[in-house]
């Protein structure tokens, strides 16, 4: 393994050719000098995607029958020659210095840091930044995944965790982070200078993975992989549930307080709003 090499692993299943090319170009155009780009064709059958895959240059192209992103990540990482691994969705892309910044942070961090993730900007059907904490432990993801899949980690950590789950019934990266954090007792941290661009589109996996059943499956798989930490995960989930209930109660009290205050003036407010609406319609053209 090359001590400075970063292997960027990109599963592809019928992704749009323009998205795939932008993704690969962003990986190949990193300011870090030693980046290996591995694209795993996860059984694509769309001709436009297949043509785009065949046209790629300077990448390691692997083929497999469709088995889902977890299995595709495992295929790519198993073939990787880098000491470090960065998963990347085929419809997403990175800022040019993202790998350099993530690697510098990971190499300079203490032994408790097992991965570094970037700041995520939404693209497509959503805009803004993805909320993320500065640091994440196993307890923090007992209820929901709070880490973006595109997190830099050492290949040896993938071996320790036993690879990505290939269940196809949950978020494969949530399972991976849970097992990795559970077996190392470490944490994942954010590098605030690194930028990643996450494309949201109809039917994209980030929307699908929010389903209740898939969340339940992810939690179950993590507990099954970490039976000695099941009680700890339960207590953490219970604490987060208590915090959510307390927050809901505070919000309910706030709403009820304002409802009582506005009760006597509600008719006047509705009349004033109606009057303003009518006045806006009566404005003369050009006024």
Automatic annotation (TrEMBL):
Keywords tagged on the record: Transferase
Alphabetical list of InterPro entries matching this protein: Glyco_trans_2-like, Glycosyltransf_2, Nucleotide-diphossugar_trans
Pfam families: Glycos_transf_2
Gene3D superfamilies: Spore Coat Polysaccharide Biosynthesis Protein SpsA, Chain A (3.90.550.10)
Biological process per Gene Ontology, one example term: single-species biofilm formation
GO molecular-function term, one example from the UniProt record: transferase activity
UniProt-listed SUPFAM superfamilies: Nucleotide-diphospho-sugar transferases
Occurrences of domain Glycosyltransferase 2-like (ranges): 7-125
Superkingdom, natural source: Bacteria
PANTHER family found in the cross-reference section: GLYCOSYLTRANSFERASE, GLYCOSYLTRANSFERASE 2-LIKE DOMAIN-CONTAINING PROTEIN
Protein name: Glycosyltransferase family 2 protein
Species for this entry: Ornithinimicrobium avium
């Amino acid at each position: 393994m090359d001590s400075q090499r970063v292997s960027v692993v990109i599963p592809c299943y019928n992704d749009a050719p323009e998205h795939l090319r932008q993704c690969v170009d962003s990986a190949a155009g990193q300011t870090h000098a030693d980046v290996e780009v591995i694209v795993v064709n996860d059984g694509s059958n769309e001709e436009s995607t297949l043509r785009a895959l065949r046209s790629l240059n300077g990448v390691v192209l692997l083929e497999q029958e469709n088995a889902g992103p977890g299995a595709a990540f495992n295929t790519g990482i198993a073939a990787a020659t880098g000491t470090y691994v960065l998963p990347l969705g085929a419809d997403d892309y990175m800022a040019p210095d993202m790998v350099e910044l993530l690697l510098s942070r990971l190499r300079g961090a203490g032994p408790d840091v097992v991965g570094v993730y970037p700041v995520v900007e939404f693209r497509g059907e959503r805009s803004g930044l993805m909320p993320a904490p500065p640091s994440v432990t196993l307890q923090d993801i007992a209820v929901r995944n709070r880490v973006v899949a595109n997190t830099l980690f050492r290949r040896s950590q993938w071996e320790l965790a036993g690879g990505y789950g290939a269940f196809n019934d949950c978020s494969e990266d949530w399972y991976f982070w849970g097992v990795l954090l559970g077996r190392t007792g470490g944490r994942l941290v954010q590098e605030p200078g690194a930028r990643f661009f996450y494309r949201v589109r109809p039917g994209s996996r980030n929307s699908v993975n929010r389903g209740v059943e898939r969340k339940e499956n992810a939690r179950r798989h993590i507990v099954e992989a970490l039976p000695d930490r099941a009680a700890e995960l339960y207590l953490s989930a219970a604490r987060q549930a208590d915090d959510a209930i307390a927050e809901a109660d505070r919000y309910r009290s706030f709403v009820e307080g304002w409802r009582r205050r506005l009760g006597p003036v509600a008719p006047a407010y509705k009349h004033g709003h109606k009057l303003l609406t009518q006045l806006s319609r009566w404005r003369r053209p050009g006024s």
